[in-house]
Amino acid sequence: MLDKTSYVIDRVLHWSASSLILGMLLIMGTQIHNIDYRIKGTIEHKQDAIEVHFIMAVLVFVLLLARAI
């Protein structure tokens, strides 16, 4: 019973991290290629991209730590 629960938790954490990474790639691609940086300015456009990347990376790191524990 414990092995089955452990397996399910491991799979949920794995697919959650995979979804976050894929989401990060898709959001970053959209922000970089589809949004006109001249509307906000280059620095604010870059800062928005960095902020999204940082938030997603922290969430992936938290899931990685949860999976390791």
From TrEMBL:
Which biological process annotations from GO are given for this protein? respiratory electron transport chain
Keyword annotations of the record: Membrane, Transmembrane, Transmembrane helix
Q: Name one GO cellular component term.
A: membrane
Transmembrane stretches, start-end: 12-29, 50-68
Q: Know the name of this protein? A: Cytochrome b561 bacterial/Ni-hydrogenase domain-containing protein
